[in-house]
Every structure is written in structure tokens, then in C-alpha cells.
């Protein structure tokens, strides 16, 4: 599959890596915490038939760098805006998974005119939106990486990313109510995000629909890409 590999230089010297596939309206794919754009490998063939797909490695993830000691969704949203300016994009659709969905929500609040449609897969605005066991496992992971950071630079650089798991994303219910883009909130029935929290997000965004898919968990897009891609394309193409 033909693609372009590109980087965008941020004002703080960080370099954000992204790849472009296909032709059509712009669609950004935003991965989860600790991941990279490779998470969406099973979506590219399907989505690139209809869209100009931008697969971004968020700062400090994958092939992107991060010069900051701390990171935030606000900072990563600014990165996306810089990429859009570099690509001369006025507006785009955004599909986010997990922390990528959180980033998409923050971006939509900060740059409402740049967002055409939102697809939010397994996002959470507050840490308590995550089920208990996955939330506790995040603390275990953080403890392991914290210890490893004393001897390993990679682990030390990973700590600011992991800290995102334990913070509110900075959007209140009133903030969500100001997101006016047509939105699909989609989760697996067995997702690590509490169903009631996903429903709260869908209720709070005025023009949002909610889809819960039986038999699927947090890795829905990877485990059942055919169903996931179908749901996303049906939403985007019907909304066009």
C-alpha cells in the first residue's frame, strides 16, 4: 500500500512522525497510551479507499520525539494543529482509541472549526471511568517503569506518558457539551472503560450516537477489524 512518511517540527523542537495513505477527505487516526500508529494497521486498507488517512505517532510514542519533561493532551492537540497547518488542512475527521480518543476530545474542544466528525473508541475523561482491575494494573505498570527509569533512559522517557493514565483530561461536562461535531462513541461490551462512563460521554456531547458491540473488549479494532471498520465507515459515509 502506497504511503508517505513525514515529520512535523514543533516549536519546542519535538518531531512528530506521521504517515499518509489514500485520497479523499482527511481522517486522522490517534492511538492509545504507549502505542503507535501501527495499532491501526488493520484499518488502513479499508479506510484509505475512502479517505486521505493520517496515522500519527503522538509525541514521545513510536517514532515521534518529546523534549518536554511532562506531556499533556493539550500539548498533543497543539501538535495535531501544527500537522494540519503543515498539510494545509482546514478540517478533518478524527478517530481516537483510548488515550487517542481523549486527545480527540481535547482537540475538538480547543479547535472546534478544525473537526468535521469524531469517532471515540474507549475514551475516558477521568481515571475513575476505567474499571477497577485495569486501573490497578496501570499502577503496577507505573511502579515497574518508575523503578526501571533509574537505569534505563527509555523507561525514564516513558514515565510522562504513563502519568496521563492517572489524570483528568481537563474536560468538564460543560466542555463536552460544547463539542458540536457529529460524534460516534463506540465501545466493546467488555471494554476496560466502564460502560456507564462511555454512555456519559455520549450523552454529554450534543450530536453524539452510542454503539456498544457485544463480545468485544478494549482491543476491538485489532480483534475484530471487519466489524470495527464497518461501524466507522457506516458512520462517516452516512454523515457525509
Automatic annotation (TrEMBL):
InterPro entries: AB_hydrolase, AB_hydrolase_1, AB_hydrolase_fold. The keyword Transport does not apply. One of its GO terms (molecular function) is hydrolase activity. Keywords: Hydrolase. This is Alpha/beta hydrolase. It comes from the Bacteria. It comes from Enterococcus dongliensis. The keyword Hydrolase applies. Residues 25-123 form the AB hydrolase-1 domain.
